[in-house]
Design brief:
Blueprint (H helix, E strand, L loop, with lengths): L7 H8 L4 H10 L5 E2 L5 E2 L2 H8 L16
Antiparallel strand pairs: 1-2
Length: about 70
Amino acid sequence: MSDLILTQDQIKEVTGYVQQTSQAKWLRDNRFKFLIGGDGLIKLSRNQFDLVMGATIGKGKNKPDFSNL
């Protein structure tokens, strides 16, 4: 699961904050969608991170081929 959800250290690095409440505020202010787990920790998916940050790795791999139309 470690590749699906950012680690707490990664969330600290992204937000620049150590406190959960400050991290959550920063993430909301920057339009990240995340969950708070039953353990009280922020759960931010790598997919959501990539989406907001504009990652382009892998984009276009599954484009339809319209060349025969």
